[in-house]
Design goal:
Elements (H helix, E strand, L loop, with lengths): L1 H28 L2 E4 L4 E5 L4 E9 L4 E8 L6 E6 L2 E3 L1 E4 L5 E8 L7 E10 L4 E11 L8 E5 L3 E4 L5 E9 L5 E8 L4 E7 L2 E3 L1 E4 L4 E10 L6 E11 L2 E11 L5 E4 L6 E5 L4 E9 L5 E9 L5 E5 L2 E5 L4 E9 L7 E10 L6 E10 L2 H27 L1
């Protein structure tokens, strides 16, 4: 009986110890937690892989030491926080620590699956986090960049903005930042646009296509002809080229002025004043059927000789005579007359000429005669009445 009692007491003590120990362990197990949302990842050989880790505690604030186990030989594995290498982290309730696990496989690593364990050691507890990484060979067919142009040849005048719709595709399985370059002849400006915004570079995801607009603007003095604009897209080791063609037709451009460039003169009431005008074509094509006209003040008359120019070749000029006569009711002062040379296939050229109107010489003579008559009359009157 005594032996039975002793055995019973020992069993009771053991049960008490067993019942107490797991409870304490269970409480400690709830103290720290350590996790990542994506513990298993795939990567390509040569990539640097980063795992986002979270470490926290439910109860006791503490400093937790960080470490790694089962790391393959030659691998460089570090914990990083705020851009720096770390070996520990401070945690407290409701204030978790987040940091990175940076894994750099060696250059000669083989494709396959690799496993390692991240370890967090607290004051009274150690928690582990298994990490799995699968490395794959780089694609033997990396693809490249390719252009597709809807209409590679456009026609217009030197004042035309040539807009080409271009599709650029990244045919590789990698993300590629692409720079855009243009090789245009002198006298051309090229602008790349995406969704209406000017760009010089654009990122492309794997197998991604984007629609771009290439705007080519020639200067006004570019001669007529066919011009090629080279387009280059370059990203990493990939590149693509294409050719755009701008077929520029000639365009006349008229200039209307005087032989000495002076745009002012005098005119007299009742008299015609001749003004010499020079019509020049500085464009890249002939101007045809040029009509000369004027916008004078009311009552004025303007006559041109010649009134029409059948054709004026580019780079040439011709002299035109304009005979201007002010209105008989005009008073002395300054007046503006607008001269216009208007071709049928281009913009008109205008020039404003300022006239200073003087009274006619005839009326001056009449005035002098009247004054003379008045003086003579006064003299006669003085002589007649002076005798009395």
């Amino acid at each position: 009986m005594r032996a039975i009692r002793i055995i019973s007491m020992l069993v009771l003590v053991l049960l008490m110890m067993v019942g107490f120990t797991p409870a304490s362990a269970q409480e400690n197990q709830r103290n720290l937690f350590f996790y990542t949302r994506y513990p298993s990842q795939e990567a390509t050989i040569g990539d640097i892989v980063t795992f986002k880790l979270t470490l926290g505690t439910d109860t006791t604030p503490q400093i937790v030491q960080l470490g790694m186990r089962e790391v393959p030989q030659g691998w460089n594995v570090t914990f990083r926080g705020d851009g720096r290498v770390i070996s520990s982290a401070y945690v407290e309730p409701n204030n978790n620590a987040t940091f990175d696990l940076r894994i750099e496989p060696p250059a000669d690593v083989k494709a396959g699956s690799y496993r390692m364990v991240a370890v967090a050691s607290g004051v009274s507890q150690e928690v582990t986090l298994p990490i799995a990484l699968t490395l794959k060979e780089k694609s033997t067919n990396p693809g490249g960049l390719s252009f597709k142009v809807d209409l590679p040849t456009l026609r217009g005048s030197p004042s035309t903005t040539f807009r080409y719709n271009v599709t650029l595709k990244n045919e590789s399985s990698e993300e590629v930042p692409v720079s855009l370059l243009a090789d245009a002849p002198r006298g051309f400006q090229v602008d790349f646009k995406l969704s209406g915004q000017s760009i010089t570079s654009v990122p492309f995801g794997p197998n991604e296509s984007k629609s771009l607009s290439v705007e080519v603007r020639p200067f006004n003095d570019v001669p007529a002809g066919t011009y090629e604009i080279g387009i280059l897209a370059r990203g990493n080791d990939l590149q693509a080229t294409t050719r755009l063609i701008a077929d520029i037709t000639g365009q006349p451009q008229l200039v209307l002025t005087t032989p000495d460039g002076r745009l002012s003169g005098e005119a007299r009431i009742g008299e015609k004043t001749e003004v010499k005008l020079i019509v020049s074509n500085t464009g890249s094509a002939p101007a045809r059927d040029i009509e000369l006209s004027a916008s004078p003040p009311i009552g004025w008359t303007v006559e041109f000789e010649p009134k029409q120019i059948p054709e004026l070749a580019n780079g040439q000029q011709i002299e035109v005579s304009a005979k201007v006569q002010p209105s008989n009711q005009a008073i002395a002062g300054d007046y503006l007359v607008t001269f216009t040379a208007r071709p049928t296939d281009a913009a008109a050229a205008t020039s404003e000429f300022r006239f200073t109107v003087l009274t006619s010489t005839i009326w001056g003579l009449v005035g002098i005669a009247l004054i003379a008559i008045a003086v003579v009359g006064v003299g006669i009157a003085v002589m007649r009445f002076g005798r009395r």
